[in-house]
Each structure stands twice: as C-alpha cells, then as structure tokens.
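May I ask you to review the protein record following this short note?
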Amino acid sequence: MDVRLTTEQRELRDAAARLADDLGPGSVLDLADDDRAARLEKAIAATGWRTLRSDGASGVEVALVAEEFARGLIDVPFVGPVLADDLYARLTAAGEPAPEGLETAAAGAATVAVDGIAVDAKGLRGLLALEGTQVLAGGVGVTVEGVDLTRLTGEVAGPLTAVGELDAEAALRWHALALVATAADMLGAARGGQALAVEYAKVRQQYGHAIGSYQAIAHLLAEALALVEGSVSVLRHAAWAVDELSAVEAVQAALVAKVYTERAARTICETSIQVHGGIGNTWECLAHVFLRRVLTSAELFPASLEEIDLGLS
C-alpha cells in the first residue's frame, strides 16, 4: 500500500478545502444564513462530488472530501448522497439501465436511510436503503433538526420499494465505505475543533501571555494533534481497503478506523472546549458544533471493538 496521495487526489482535497473555507459557516450565527447555504448548495451541486462513486472515484477520494467538508462544517448534504450514489453505481455496474425508482440517486439528489431515518437529508427528495443485500428506494418526508446543527434528518415517506439486489461482497464493500465516510466526517470535525482551539490559544491572554505559551495548554493541543495524525493514518488505510482488499478485510479495516477515530475525535473536541475555558461552554462558540457533528457521525453506522476480528481466536 502506498499511502501517498496522487496529484489528482491532492487537488481534489484542496478544492474541497477551499470550498469549505469560502462558504462554510464561520460562526454559529452563520448556520442560520440561508443565502450562504444556498450559495454553498449551488457550488457543491456544480462540482458533481455527490456522484463520485458512479464517476469512478475511490474510497480514498470520498474520504478526502468528507473530511474537508466536516472540517469546514459544511451544512448541506454530502455523506448521505455519496453513499446513495455508491448503491446506485453498484446496481448499474454491468452497464444495464437503472431500475425504476433510482432516478433521484442518478442525479445525486438522494440520501440513505438508516434504521428508518433519512440521514443528511436537507433539500433531498429520494432515498435508498440497504437491508441485507436488498436495495430499497423511497422518498424523504419532513426534515427536522437534531443534535447535529449542520445536518437535517428526515422521515421516510411511505413504504420503501425493492429496486435491486447486491451480491454479498458488494453489500460488504458498501458497508465498509459507509464506515469510512462517517469516520472521515468525524476526523474532519475533530481537525476543525483542534484548529479552532489552536487559534484561540494564540490570541487569548492570561497574565500578559497567550495561553498557548503555557505548558498546560500546549500539551493538551499537542496531544490532540497526535490523535489527529493517528486517525489520519488508520483512516487512510481503511479508505484504501474499500476498493483494494477483500470485502471482509475492507470491513475490518473500516471498523478499526471508525472505533479509533470516534474515540480520538471525541477527545479532541472535548479538549477544544476545555482550551476555550468558560466561553467554550457557550452557544456562541463553534466548539460544541464540532462535537455535535462527531457524536452524530459516531451513531451513524456505529462500530464497536467486539466487531473487530483481531485474529486471536
């Protein structure tokens, strides 16, 4: 495995980062800016990134975009549509016409339903779900805000209709991608929280010095950075494994990445709140928005240590 990104992958990552920096919310108040969100939606729709998988992109490339979008707290759908697109791509891999009911997925306008809930569903009409190896399609009903202030969840409107069947290997690979995408989302949010804390530590002063100059703060931030780097390593391997290893190995790598990144991201975001001190516990501080996103992505396709085959039996 060569962990180095190709030139095209670096360009994709940088483009996603620029979009997130330019149009992502810079404050909690920006989350209520409908004009900004509309411009962001238009920009992401123009990139075609929601259909990365049907366009032949790798798991690594999906993870790179998901990570940068979460770092910038992008508050329009990406993870849900890109997972729906992967299902669509797998159902039409043989070059056959798309089954009836998949029209919205082909346009990147569908999300996925997990446990009867349409996730990452803001502004989307259609949804796909995978139950075992069967792909189901339906519509998104009323959307509501939840713990995550950057994404909406929706009701499943009416009964779902079977639109196709995956083989067991394809179903496992989709599950591996789902774990990787949500782990990448957690890593991005953690990176955003860590960067927020670093910037605050540079400007907040106590006793005439920036608080980042004190070891108590510097060590916390250094430990958070080490957790970020560890998460990058384990996630990069899992994202590569989605397409390059066997389906069973890909799922195992993704489970490891999800478990490790969840624990690391939660610690990093809690550290960010701690570094901010009292203001870190207020609504106006973005630190809690990063933590909320991590907690939500952790519960989407959850993973546990018990699921990981360590080869010790």
Summary: The two ends are 27 Å apart (CA to CA). The longest strand covers residues 152-165.
